[in-house]
Specification:
Elements (H helix, E strand, L loop, with lengths): L4 H12 L4 E6 L6 H12 L4 E6 L6 H16 L10 H15 L6 E6 L12 H16 L2 E7 L2 H9 L12 E4 L5 H11 L6 H11 L3 H5 L7 H10 L8 H10 L3 H11 L8 H8 L5 H12 L3 E4 L9 E4 L2 H9 L5 H6 L4 H5 L3 H17 L1 H8 L5 E11 L4 E11 L3 E8 L9 H17 L6 E8 L7 H5 L4 E4 H4 L2
Parallel strand pairs: 1-4, 1-5, 2-3, 3-4, 10-11, 11-12
Antiparallel strand pairs: 6-7, 8-9, 9-10
Length: about 500
Amino acid sequence: MIGRNKELEILSNACEQDESKLIAVYGRRRIGKTYLINHMFSEHKKDCLFFRFTGSYMLDSSTQLENFIEAIYDWFKCEPSKDITNWMSGFNFLKKAISSSQTPNQKVVIFLDEIPWIDKKNSGGFIGALGYFWNEFALSNKNIVLILCGSNSSWIKNKIFEDSNGPLYQRLDIKIHLKPFDLKETKEYLIKEKNFHIDDKTIAETYMVLGGVAKYLSLLDSSKTIAQNIDELIFNIDGHLNKEYSEVLKSLFDAKASYYSSIIKILSQKQSGFTQTELANALGEKSGSKIKDAVAELSEAGFIMPLSKLGSKINAKYIISDPFVLFYNKWVSEFSKNELISLQKPYFSSVMNSQKYAIWSGFAFEVLCLVSIDLYLQTRMTKGLAKSYGYWNFIGNNEDSGAQIDFIVEYENSVYDIVECKFYNSEFTISKDYKENLLHKIEMFKKYAIKGKYDIKLVMLTSYGCQINSHYNALNMTSNISLNELLV
């Protein structure tokens, strides 16, 4: 269970309490939520009475109810005494099944997986019945651990966390937001679990395609190169991940999937990102609640993230933060079905040597660095001091030319890290022009962004570090961080 020790401890502690616990586990599809719960109660808490029901995508509420009753029979081996036609009766049947099977003081774990799919619009009264079951039975039983799990984070948030009229409002005891593996955890998984013998740059390249999504990483075959794996999983029309992008959007956002896909497509066209207003303009609509809600839901799902301009709390720019989504919209979405079929098998293997890939990988590496901000701060040993991170730019005027800083960290006491991210096959060499450009950025930042005291630190974050030459020394570099140091 790489990277999940904290979550296992939380679940274990919940089972040790002398009262019932209501837990929500949510996070991106394929992230390992179901595996985490199943592992916990098959390996660590075998003495618990365990029941699992999984909602099914595209089935109506009545069919879901039939499956629910069938699941109770499968787990408890008891049959209802009469026909069950609504969710209230369904949960009453579950209550009776538990009461007849539970031994004194035995913990009962009820795991409702993919709960957003069970009754999407609550047309069948599922949430009300679930709330009644919890409030009237589970709380008084004192030995129930009810786990609500789902990939649609916004549904969980809207229906469970924030619906003040709902029966479960403010009833949650524990929220577990299960996130993708970070880069360091991905390295541990690929080397220890999948038995790859690859260097840190190759691990970063893998992350820039698949992200830290446990299911995607589990599909990799260590007898093949990473490029061969990507060709077979994504660029093969029958590959396991060939249709994954559209399936993810459809399963999470349903009727809104096409609209959300158009937002992502626009974001993939511009490295520096778009503000909410710019996104609306690109879509040919006014900036309002529709685009605001879409951006919020995509952010909640982890597909995009806002980057604020340093010193400004408005007009945040949104960028794609999910590596798989970024990769798909650059390399796969442009192909039609027939074109994918006609592609030679080693397509991506050949692309990796192109200038087009070199340019894209530089951008993808910057995104990787931004989403790996915790690893960066740990390496710099400044995690407790950081106030914010984002970007800064200066458009330019008659006196000074413009400047763009893509990654800047602000600390307490007016200390700033200006971070330059470079993804190269060897040590990065700072040229005279590159040095002059960096010095210009620093001067513009001092002139137009800062008032009062400041302490600016220049940091290079690269795949293999920087070559030390006269231009490097002239910059008075604070830190020269390689991937190896980030992942140690």
